[in-house]
Amino acid sequence: MITFRRVVEADFPLIAEWLSQPHVARWWNQEFTAEAVERDFGPVARGEEPAEDLLAFEDDVPFAHVQRCRWSDYPEELDAIAQFVEMPDEATTIDYLIGDVAQTHKGRGTRLIAALVEDTWNAYPASNTIIVPVVAGNRASWRALERAGFRRVGEAQLAADNPIDPPLHYVQRIDRPVIGS
């Protein structure tokens, strides 16, 4: 069973370690010095930003970092993606990384995403949709989303996290199941 808890400042060294791993750095492209991690993750950990940073645990061992937020809390990003796909009110988004490369390509990402989706429905009861743009070159990520039940609903030209990537993103979507169907 996968569980989640909010990131606290004591988790920053672990996040820095994961961000430094080549398989993570390729797609996240973030600085991982102590100062950079504090700068990038501190405001969310302290509740100064509306997003959530969470650690994912399996057997009480952290193995992944996930982020989620409501699109409406970040109007610039919402406006950018809304040019390409329909964005329902209260739509949320997620992002994720598995810290140890030895834990990748074993279905764990798909299980992580599925657990995060279920947790998101509980954490955001007004949200009926999760929409995730993934840089087209990150096949492992968009395939894990599809295996977790997402479907591709479009393509978008968005700034990539890593400047070596072209702006093409595949936009994936999952809708909250309708009770009784």
TrEMBL record:
GO terms for molecular function: acyltransferase activity. It holds the Pfam family Acetyltransf_8. InterPro entries: Acyl_CoA_acyltransferase, Acyltransferase_MbtK/IucB-like, GNAT_dom. The keyword Acyltransferase applies. Pathway: Siderophore biosynthesis; mycobactin biosynthesis. The keyword Acyltransferase applies. Keywords: Acyltransferase, Antibiotic resistance, Transferase. Residues 2-177 form the N-acetyltransferase domain. SMART domains: AlcB. Acyltransferase required for the direct transfer of medium- to long-chain fatty acyl moieties from a carrier protein (MbtL) on to the epsilon-amino group of lysine residue in the mycobactin core. This is Lysine N-acyltransferase MbtK. It comes from Rhodococcus sovatensis.
